[in-house]
Design a protein that fits this description.
With 342 residues, this protein is α+β, with helices and mostly antiparallel strands. The chain is 36% helix and 19% strand. α5 crosses α7. The chain is elongated and about 90 Å long. About 3% of the residues have low confidence.
Length: 342
């Protein structure tokens, strides 16, 4: 009669209590819990080891093939809003600046100024064709949607990290692999004053040369000609603004070189007002330029400008670069030279 007066929920609960009170169940239940835990651990470990295996499967050659394959697919899906440009060479103090006229940059600016709610483009789900590869457990490789150079790619963190954070060894290793795959130049825009348009940490890589008939990196000769100091830090004589350059010995030496440069420029502390900076990384050297503002008049300045290539939106901007000179434009976006490496 007691069972007959129970509702369904009470009946089930009472049945379970009596079931687990049986001697055999008291023995088997803990064992089943332990077995389940062991199974889940083994399953997780196998997945982890499989992911580690995938991380180290990339070589520069296989990653290059993957980038080319993904680029063809992205183009077929109209994922990339590539910007057509014309270009001119403007020499200034023995540096031949490559200046691209890209009127369609106004479209990017309009998209950036959209007041609607924005999705972080560096977190999944990605736009079809944007994701190229998972480089490691912590980093992915995606295309730059608004690209001026074919195969312009971004190394991004899988979890959100601020673009104001210091670069890590994991950032550098993922970047170095991509640089080797594309024979590329890497750059990092730290903070809004540096020209960064996204708060999610990302390092950009463009293949070299930047244009047909142009030196691999326009400032390469100036870097090589710069007097080197005993501590390895040096300045480029044509740059009349604050900056520091250093040679490095490859992927395992870059992080320490980066920290030395930031320390010399007093940029290690995130609260420093000059924490906004541009970083250029070639396969031989590293350059850091503290930034005062993101643009000069209507000309946007990001890290590539200090490599010797400027992007302008109009003929009037081009004429301003010609009349004032590229180096004077760059100097207006930076701090005066107060720290010398020599």
């Amino acid at each position: 009669s007691t069972w007959g007066n129970l509702d369904r929920h009470s009946f089930v609960m009472l049945s379970l209590r009596r079931l687990v009170s049986l001697p055999a169940v008291k023995v088997l239940l803990p064992a089943s819990v332990v077995c389940s835990a062991i199974y889940l651990y083994i399953r997780h470990t196998r997945r982890y080891r499989a992911s580690i295996s995938r991380v180290f499967s990339w070589t520069p050659e296989t990653l290059r093939s993957r980038i080319y394959e993904a680029s063809a697919y992205a183009e077929s899906r109209n994922t990339l809003a590539s910007i057509e440009t014309t270009s001119q060479i403007i020499p200034d103090t023995n540096i031949s600046f490559l200046v691209r006229i890209a009127k369609a940059l106004r479209q990017k600016a309009a998209a950036s100024n959209d007041t609607g709610k924005k999705k972080n483009p560096f977190l999944p789900p990605f736009e079809d064709g944007q994701l190229i590869a998972e480089l490691s457990l912590s980093h992915s490789l995606v295309f730059n949607k608004f690209n001026l150079v074919k195969h312009h790619v971004l190394v991004i963190t899988k979890e959100f990290q601020s673009q104001l954070d210091l670069l890590t060894q994991a950032d550098i290793e993922a970047t170095w692999l991509t640089m080797k795959a594309l024979n590329g130049l890497a750059f990092f825009n730290c903070g809004p004053n540096s020209g960064a348009s996204q708060p999610h940490k990302h390092i950009q890589i463009v293949p070299l040369p930047l244009a047909t008939g142009v030196d691999s990196v326009p400032i390469q000769a100036a870097v090589q000609a710069a007097p080197k100091t005993t501590d390895g830090l040096f300045s480029i004589s044509q740059f009349n603004f604050e900056h520091i350059c250093v040679m490095h010995q490859g992927v395992d030496s870059i992080l320490s070189a980066y920290h030395r440069v930031l320390t010399h420029l007093d940029l290690m502390e995130p609260v420093h007002p000059k924490r906004h900076y541009n970083l250029l990384l070639s396969q031989e050297w590293l350059l850091v330029v503290p930034r005062r503002c993101a643009k000069v008049d209507s000309i946007d300045i990001n890290a590539l400008a200090f490599a010797g290539t400027l992007f302008v939106r109009s003929e009037s901007d081009l004429n301003q670069v010609k009349s004032r000179g590229p180096l004077n434009i760059l100097a207006d976006a930076c701090y005066p030279t107060v720290v010398s490496a020599v």
